[in-house]
Structure formats: C-alpha cells, structure tokens
Amino acid sequence: MAEGILFYFFNLKGMDRIVRLYNPYVPSRPIAHLKSHTTPIFYIHLSNEDNRIFSISTDKCLNVWDLIDHSCLASIRPKSHKITGELQACCYNPKSKTILINSDKVSFLSLKLKANLHTEVILSHKEPVVCAMFNKQFKQLVSCSESGTIKLWDVESGRDLFEFSNAHGDQAITCMTFDDTGRRLITGGRDGQCKIWNFNNGHCLKILTKDNNLEISDVKYTKVYNNKFIINVGWDRCINIYDDDVNDVRLVLNPNPRWTDDIENGHREDILCLAKSDTNFLATSGYDGEIIVWNMVSGHVFTKLKSPKPIGYSDDNLDGDLNVNKMIFLNKERYNDKNATHLISSGPWGMIHFWTVFHGAAILARFQVRQWGWHRFKSDKRGTNITRMIFDSKLCHLFAADNYGYIYHYNIDEYATYGPERHPPQLVRCWRAHTQNVTSLEYIETSKIVISTSSDCTIRVWKPDGRYIGTFGQDEVWNLYDEKTYKHPLVPYDVLVDEQSLPEHPVLSTRETFQEVLDSNRISEKIKKEQEKAAKIISNIKNYMIDDQTIMNQIKNMSVPNKVGKRLRHEITKPNVISMDKNSKNYYQMLKCYQYEPAPPHKEPPNSIKKSETKYYA
C-alpha cells in the first residue's frame, strides 16, 4: 500500500489489459481505471516513496503511472529499451531513479527527469551535463551531455560558439580528455567506444574499439618517454591502451595486448576512474574502493591502497560509500619526499584521502567534508559523496564537489607534507552551486575562476570565494575582468528556492507540512500573548510591593487621632468621616434657611378667541 493513500490495493483483471485500483472499504467498484496497455498485463511493481506504479505487459511494454493523479507518465516500448528476451519482473530504486528489469539478463533503465523549465532557470544543455574541460590552447570550454551533444563555449564572455550532436549515436558520452597539443578531443561513451574528434568542426578522426561494448568510465591521454598512448577503463575491469601514432592512417584502432599483471592481479570490480602522474605512475580505482598504482613502463602493480572502515561508521550512500570517483596525482616535486602526500582520492567511505605511495603506502590524512552554514557548521548530510576534485598548480587550494551540489574550497598549503595529519585542512569557503550532482570541476588559474557542471543541465562560473559570475547560455554576456558584469550578489534561482539550500533550524527539521507550521505559529502567538499578560500582571504586582523598612517608616509617621476607641489599626488608615459630637449641631441644623415667598395670585387667561357661529346647510 502506498503511503499517503490509505487502503489502496490493485487487482489485475485477466486479459482486459486494465489496472484497477480498489478501496477495501468499498470493494464493489474500483476508484480508478488505468488504461494504456494493448496486451495483457502480467506484472506490477509499486513504489511507495515516489507514488509510482510500474506495469509490464506481454508485448514487453513498460508503463509508469502516477498513483495520485492516476495518469500515465511514460510508456517505454521495446524499441526504446532494447531489452531482449522475455520480461519477467521489474523493480524500482527511488534513490538512483533506476528500473531493474529481469529477463534472460539483468537490465537497468535510468529515468530521465526533466529539468524545471522556470523562466528564471537558465539551462546550458537540454540534457544533464556529463563532463566539461577547459582547453588552454584555444581558451574555450568543451562540454558534453547525455544525449551526445558537444558544445564549445567562450569562457571570457559565456557565448555559445559551436555544437554538434550524436557523437556516439544514441548513446551518452561518459568522459572526455584532450591530447597533448589540445587540438584533438577524445570522448568515451556507453557504447564501449572512444572517438577522436576535431572539435572545431565536429569531424571524427578515429574510433577506438575493444572486444566488448561495456561502458567506458574514464579516459586519459599520456606520454611515456617518446611514446604516446590513450588509456581507457570501464565496466570491463580492464586497462585498455591504444597507440597514438600520427603515421597510422587506420580509422578503427584496437587496444594493445593487456598487461599480464592486469589479468592476474587487476581489479575484480568495475573501474571508475584513473589518474596519471608525471613519473610514469598510473592509478586506477574500483567500485569496491580498491586503488591500484601501476608502473607504466613495466606494466606491473606498484602498490595497492585500501582504506579501512572508520570506527562507528554506517553506510548511508546508495553505492555503499566504497566507490572512488576521482583521483589526482600531485606534482613530481613531491616524490622527492617519500613521506609526503603523492595521491589524493575522493573516497572511499565518502571521505577525502591523502595517500603516500612509497614505503608500503599509507594514509596520511582523511576527512569528511563539512558544510558551512550561517556562521556555524551545519551537520553533515547523510550519504554525502565527493564526486569531483581539482587543485591549483601550487598545491595551495583544493576544490571538491559532492552529490548535493555543494563546492568546498580548502587551503591545503603544506597539509600532510611532513607526515600524518589528525585534523582536516582549513575550509576557506563552501557554497551551493547546483541542485543536483556535480559532474565536473575546472579551475582556471589565469582568470582565477571555478567552472562547475551538473546533472541539472547547467554550467556555471564562480569565483574561488563563491561569488556567482553567470551561467553558460544566459542572454547577458559577462566580462571576467569587470566585476560589474557578474551576477553577484545574486544566486541561481533554482538553488535559492531549493529546500536543501535552507539553513538548519529546529522548525525546519521537525515541521513537515504547511498546516503544521501555521498551527505552530498560532499556538506560539497564543502562548506569547499569555506570557505578555502574565508579565504585565507580575509587573503590576511588583509596583505594589513595599519592603518592611518602608512600612515601618509609614507607621511611625502616621497621624493617629487622640480619640480613644477599640478600632483596629487598619481601620485607622481608612478615610476620615466627619465625626459629630453630642453638643455640636447635626446636619439638619447646619442647613442654610431662606425666607418663604407666597405664590402670586392666579389670573384667568383673556378670552381672545370668540366663538364662531356654526352654520349648517341643507
């Protein structure tokens, strides 16, 4: 039964292709008919969290229904999901917005949520932005979306320069990089291929294939001595290396033979990302949290990094908090000191790790990101996962982003340089840049700006202190060297109105509905009035309070009459009345008398009116 809708259940009526909703208290007739299927329905799944119904019919059609509006939200046909075999069951994950379908194989369908097309929300792409990179050669930003659209942007003004679509057919782009000259763009997709592009005109130069079509998660361009290579990793759990030879005229290239150590001692889970150092080290991270450092020259494993589980830690992330989404090797100057930090990773356990890869490898520091809110630290959000990281060339500033859209600016100058650290580095600034997961970060040192992309279809530009410059795709152009063209002090509208952007407050954490907030306000106002009334009464009472010394002085100064009587003391203090002695006059005798004057004689009024004779006419 769905939460918020009491006592609803479902009944499949055989071959009539209709889903009926019943109320158990009124079972005589259904309250709604869900009609869209053209063949009999054999399976239904209900999601309580999102109030959704998922139904599968015999023609392999999957329908998504809204449990409240009783409307069909989506109808996924076999030509769309391309799942082979006989469909048997389905299950929905509300956290990842993914449908799991069971046939002769397990398939995942990701539901694409449309962006909020508010007039104040500016979109850079029509689909979620997967990645973006800054090209130093042309001083342009290249961004990719899930639909395979590649766009070129002018960073200094925010203008859209060029775009081309369907880079990987109907498959999404997952990663990208440039070659050493910056003139060629290399993209990896969910179709298991890498493509080399002339991104200025959209011409595909070469296609890098492999034995399977599993998704590619990361791609890098590297140079070992005089040899140039393209390396990609992904769900096939292999390190695929391609030669980049300018004299090779082939359009389609196959990978080199795999390293022996990669086959025997490589990853046992999907590889998520890789990083290349200046000293011919290659690092790969797996879905299980294992990081392997390879020697690019020999192809052997140099060391393996495994982070122990923190004490008292509980898994709150959908992925179990073991995945490592980003790794960065530090400059080769750091390798002279074997005890300094050589590698930074954004996981596992949702923590930023500082590693040394020599002397058996060790963790020098690890910490969780914290959000700075309203002059104090906000409590950590459950399930926070660092998705991207970037730092400057001097290793002084580290920028990290999480799956809630926050960007963190840390000062890591000389942090974990001379040994282990117990405390996290100084947090310079934290701000919310997007409402959804941040997919990439770029820091341009010449202009001192931070560029962030997100699944909310936006690409935004920031100053390192969190000042908002603008969003790529907006009508107004900006000038990076003129602060008057910045959007600051404004913030993006979607970030401003999002509920997660609000600061922590006891009322916000306990109240759930608008009516409860109104009721609480009425109760608080009533209590406030009663408190004011009580305070007023207490203040009045305080005005009548007299200490004992004052009472003693008033009694001594009181004038008591000499008349002897048995009256009490409190009767003496009563107002005096006029006391009459026996020899004194009474009140009647004290009245003033006047001479009586007789009344004047009565005069008859004169007869001024004569009686008129009355005449009668016949």
Automatic annotation (TrEMBL):
Keyword set includes Cell membrane: no
Cleavable signal peptide: none
Pfam family, one: WD40
Coiled-coil intervals, chain numbering: none
Keyword annotations: Repeat, WD repeat
InterPro entries for the chain: Quinoprotein_ADH-like_sf, WD-EF-hand_domain, WD40/YVTN_repeat-like_dom_sf, WD40_PAC1, WD40_repeat_CS, WD40_rpt
Gene3D superfamilies attached to this UniProt entry: YVTN repeat-like/Quinoprotein amine dehydrogenase
Ranges of the WD repeats in the UniProt entry: 34-75, 122-163, 173-207, 264-304, 431-463
Sequence segments annotated as region (Disordered): 598-618
Biased composition (Basic and acidic residues): 600-618
Name of the protein in question: Uncharacterized protein
Organism from which the protein derives: Brachionus calyciflorus
